[in-house]
Amino acid sequence: MAEDLNWAIGGEAGDGIDSTGKIFAQALSRAGRHVFTSKDFASRIRGGYTAYKIRTSTEQVQSVVDRLDILVALTQRTIDENLDELHDQSAVIYDGERSWEAEYPEYITGVDVPLKSLAEEAGGAIMRNIVALGAACEITNFAIKNLDEALEKRFGSKGEKIVENNKKAARLGQEYVAENYDLDVDYDLDETDNDYVLLNGDEAIGMGAIAAGCRFYAGYPITPATDVMEYLTGRIDEFGGHVVQAEDELSAINMALGAARAGARSMTATSGPGIDLMTETFGLVATSETPLVIVDVMRSGPSTGMPTKQEQGDLNMTLYGGHGEIPRFVVAPTSIDECFWKTVEAFNYAEKYQTPVYLVADLALAVTEQTFPPEAFDMDEVEVDRGKVVDDDTVGEWLDDEGRFRAHANTDDGVSPRAFPGTIDGAHMSTGLEHDELGRRTEDTNVRIEQVDKRNRKVDTAREQEDWDYREFGDPDADSLVISWGSNEGAMREALGYLDERGIDVRFLSVPYIFPRPDLSEEIAAAETTIVVECNATGQFANLIEHDVLERVERINKYNGVRFKADELADDIEEKLATEAKAQ
Amino acid sequence: MSSDVKFTDFKSDKQPTWCPGCGDFGTMNGMMKALANTGNDPDNTFVVAGIGCSGKIGTYMHSYALHGVHGRALPVGTGVKFANPDLEVMVAGGDGDGYSIGAGHFVHAVRRNPDITYVVMDNRIYGLTKGQASPTSRQDFETSTTPEGPKQPPVNPLALALASGATFIAQSFSSDALRHAEIIEQAIEHDGFGFVNVFSPCVTFNDVDTYDYFRDSLVDLQEEDHDPTDYQSAKEKILEGDKEYMGVIWQDEESVPYHETHGVTENMADIPDGAADGTMDLVREFY
Ligand SMILES: Cc1ncc(C[n+]2csc(CCOP(=O)(O)OP(=O)(O)O)c2C)c(N)n1
Ligand code: SF4
What we know:
The structure holds two protein chains of two kinds.
Chain A: E1 5-12, H1 17-30, E2 34-40, E3 49-57, E4 68-73, H2 76-82, E5 86-94, E6 109-112, H3 115-122, H4 128-139, H5 144-155, H6 160-180, E7 197-200, H7 201-211, E8 214-219, H8 226-232, E9 242-245, H9 249-261, E10 265-270, H10 272-287, E11 292-298, H11 315-320, E12 329-331, H12 336-353, E13 356-362, H13 363-367, E14 369-372, E15 389-390, E16 418-419, E17 429-431, H14 445-465, E18 471-474, E19 480-484, H15 488-501, E20 506-510, E21 513-515, H16 521-526, E22 529-534, H17 540-549, E23 554-557, H18 566-583
Helix pairs in contact in A: 1-5, 3-4, 3-6, 4-6, 5-6, 7-8, 7-12, 9-10, 15-18
Chain B: H1 23-37, E1 45-49, H2 57-60, E2 64-67, H3 73-83, E3 88-94, H4 95-101, H5 103-112, E4 117-122, H6 157-163, E5 168-173, H7 177-189, E6 194-199, H8 211-217, E7 218-220, H9 231-240, E8 244-251, H10 258-261, H11 279-284
Parallel strand pairs in B: 1-2, 1-3, 3-4, 4-6, 5-6, 7-8
Antiparallel strand pairs in B: 5-8
Helix pairs in contact in B: 1-7, 4-5
């Protein structure tokens, strides 16, 4: 119990919940503890309930569970919202001096700390959340020096005084609890010698982009993709790149397209509504055979839906969106470190096959922070493959009899040569109109077929050349097979442990490639029951799989806006398997 | 860049399918001449075209080129220039492409001030879709979709540009070959967004804004001794609206193009074949 701790701070948007939570998460990470955070936020800046939750352990944690041990409640609603997660070992830190009288069930331990007065004593009421962090350190026996380090990191740029005041605020909180309470609830947050980095999926995507050599990014702010742009801003410049905040998504994707045609590795990121706007240009990108990475960080739709809530509802859109038939790749990272690596891969696919690549993440991946050893992002492992680029010396091989560059040459593998502007004799036209090898408009029936086949052939080539595999967990010989994509991997991996405790063996495949994707027919044939787990109502991935294997699969769908929790998922799977067994 | 580049080097061997007499022929010839006269060659030039009869221009010219989707040519051109500031970037399209579906991009391209040249082939009609009203069509101009005229005033593109903070505003006439090429040349040489609205008559669908009309009504600013660096005078000419002008109306001599204000100088195509030096620092930041 003491090892695996769930902590949360909640209040109104504008109460500094996010930054306070992040400081604590960093302190835990500094202490060599694994951290997995989740956020519950409403789509408003001030007012409205918001919470930042941290799960921490010395073992790896990669999901949320339905249990809350320490809660810093800045409002009554914070307690109310989390009632069913609180238990008899839970402690609620609140400020009894504030205008509200905290109401909570008797079995919970209330820790009334005069957050505001102590903060004022330390130098300002604004530090009341830090007082609460100090109090939390005392309750969890967590060495406050780790918090000091996190405070230095957070406030270092604001000057020594601010840092000292914050440290004092934390100490006052700690001492107050030590002097006034003799608590029954007792937690011990051990430290380890491990070094960890703490980052979220959007940041991992941005970092992957820079590592892969992306130098141009154009985007338009939208939750939950904005962090990608904010991450790149200021950082990409150090590598000779540039970020533009475009006037809308139409402009963003077109700028990114222009930059890609000029030879840059180029990217844009958005969420569902932005993908809608980009779809016309997406067709142009594919038809003009321009390498481009388009990130869709999914949120709950349709329309503006629930902008701050989890969903995996855009899979069909990224697979099929756009008029006409367009080859594209769809890659969906399944964990935060994979957000980094799949971004690197996405750039290589885009340039090797001269196609747009959708990198599909979801809100749960994007806003969740998780600890990793820094080697998880080993830059020496990054490979950059620019594909068939010709230069002044090699362009000659691709000129026709009249010296014109065959930018859409009909090759065996479907991939044509690419000349960056500036290459002598490489000048050519690209267009969204159907075109011949030279890029010139045509309505010739044979050329049309030739070019459509050529573009589609790239997918066949990629199917052969690349490893479109899944990640496998659990018992490889189990009769029960669970398949998921995207952020569900973490919860599912942990659910395997719970199921194991109940004597249920499960084989779990987490699939990061949507198109092309691994052929799962053998795996499904070998299983008695196959369940596809995803955060949407209609089972978009399950439909795909059924289509591939011509066999019905079971589904577990969640679409209330909240990601899967490990314990809940284990229950769902147990229940599903039980009903299946009964039916047979 | 070679100095012996002729304007015909910018011509592709594809025969234009514009209607005989279309203003776009003259507009394009002037663009090619201006590119050659300013020392460019097809291998360092990027032409982005919109959709419309006007947008076909990219096909008839020879250079690196992209023919995009309707209304989005400016963002493409902007992206090209950002990624490689060494390229000469020219964006061309129609009045519908630029001031209707792409109007938002126009405003923002103008205020970003990238060092590109934007040529709008303004025929005050939608040509390619066969004769509907365009944003520059006159209030009483009868078309298939506006049988009694649009009944709303036309957009004043020059005023829109001025209000958005343009650093170069010019107007030209496709059939005045010499002046037209000169004006485009000045736009190319301008350090920043060189905007030229070109009257490029549609002989098939517009019987009002004809060659004769422009020939009779156009006032050449050069003959008026207009000083294009005089903002007040430019503003008056643009807003008074009772005369049609030709020539450079406004030029901000202090203009600093986007890539300079934002320190974008490198050709972004040049990247190492693995993660760049220093990328491990990006990871350490997350300690
Ligand atoms: C999204 C979209 N909507 C509509 C069209 C159809 N369309 C093609 S050209 C055009 C108007 C062109 O007018 P203008 O820009 O003035 O060019 P012109 O043909 O007169 O040179 C339209 C509406 C399209 N191609 N794409
Ligand atoms: S329809 Fe008008 S604009 Fe189009 S080619 Fe013919 S004359 Fe030119």
